[in-house]
Amino acid sequence: MRILVTGGAGFIGSALIRHLIGETDHEVLNLDKLTYAGVLSSLDPVGDSPRYRFVRGDICDGELVGRLLGEFRPDVIAHLAAESHVDRSIDGPGAFIQTNLVGTYTLLAEALAYWRGLDGDRRDAFRFHHISTDEVFGSLGEDGYFTEATAYDPRSPYSASKAGSDHLVRAWGHTYGLPVLVTNCSNNYGPYHFPEKLIPLIIIRALAGEPLPVYGDGSNVRDWLFVEDHARALRAVFERGVPGETYNVGGDSERRNLEVVQAICATLDRLAPRADGRAYAGQIGFVADRPGHDHRYAIDASKIKAELGWAPQVGFEEGIERTVRWYLDNRGWWGDILAGRYDTARLGLAKA
Ligand code: NAD
């Protein structure tokens, strides 16, 4: 298979590409604009594989997308390129509207023209796979789960832009017959996660001896999925999923934010004890809650389990241990980011 991955220099896109090059014979073209969140060194493990190629470009550039589709002739478009950070969407929603909505529209328009030009078996086999989030469903109380039938109720500029892009993708399926697939996934974590996100931020700030900020009282609940399990789920969906269908992907690992931070601290206490012998948890501090902070997300992933035989393989405790070890062993990767190649001011971290 030939797979055009958009946003392949990001956290999940790079995990997908490492998986596809490492575990399959598929060929990959990675189209990524390299925003602040795009980190090409996340693809170092792919090395100089002849099955991998990178093009720097914007999904909003229809001419470029059309040309790449014609040259590469993919069987699958795995669309991950997005602005993805909720806090940034509150400060500056414009980029989210541009990439997540206009970019997805541009990709759909070019994909439709390309797909219509395919013949016979290749036309039947083509898939447009849109990768989305559980945040489109809004917020849950203490009970219940998001299923594929849950009504959309996005609350932040980020989740609203993703919800809009999901609707566009399904509309292109219903209206034009484009063979689309949508996945809505819970919070990912693991190696190569950009330092502004909760888990890497806590690890890095803990090691720097800085306060560990927890929003509100830390009671917000998220379901956590190890990113390599997500990569396997995406592959299962675009290889075997039914066009027109949506699949929810989750880790069966609901944790309060405070529990997540405490788990990281306990792991660091074992693997990299503080020089003064004190517990890292002593660095935890509570900060004003995020505006409109959703209380709980929880995914019912029974459809993808029953229909495609996927299940998460890495439990939360193992995943946190692997993640903390990775950040301890790969200080060069995140040190580069903190060294000024990116806007670190908003991470509240001193530049290295
Ligand atoms: P990320 O921010 O780490 O990576 C996004 C990538 O997209 C970056 O490499 C960036 O350079 C690229 N990009 C941004 N705008 C672009 C544009 N206009 N043209 C081309 N490339 C562009 O994001 P992520 O965490 O890897 O998330 C990937 C996808 O998965 C997103 O669509 C996100 O909504 C979705 N998702 C993420 C999570 C999560 O927990 N991280 C959970 C569920 C779904």
UniProtKB/TrEMBL annotation:
Entry superkingdom: Bacteria
GO biological process terms, semicolon-separated: nucleotide-sugar metabolic process
E.C. code: 4.2.1.46
Pfam families xref list: GDP_Man_Dehyd
Reactions accelerated catalytically: dTDP-alpha-D-glucose = dTDP-4-dehydro-6-deoxy-alpha-D-glucose + H2O
SUPFAM superfamilies per record: NAD(P)-binding Rossmann-fold domains
Residues annotated as domain NAD(P)-binding: 4-323
NCBIfam families: dTDP_gluc_dehyt
Family from the record: Belongs to the NAD(P)-dependent epimerase/dehydratase family. dTDP-glucose dehydratase subfamily.
Protein name, per record: dTDP-glucose 4,6-dehydratase
Source species: Rhizorhabdus wittichii (strain DSM 6014 / CCUG 31198 / JCM 15750 / NBRC 105917 / EY 4224 / RW1) (Sphingomonas wittichii)
